Amino acid sequence: MNKTIQFGLGVAAIFALGAAMSFAQAGEATYKAKCQSCHGAEGTPNAGIAAAMGVKPATDPSVKAHTEAQMIAMTTDGKGKMPAFKGKLTDAEIKGSVDYFRTFTK
Question: Contact at 8 Å (CB) between 83 and 105?
Answer without folding.
Answer: no
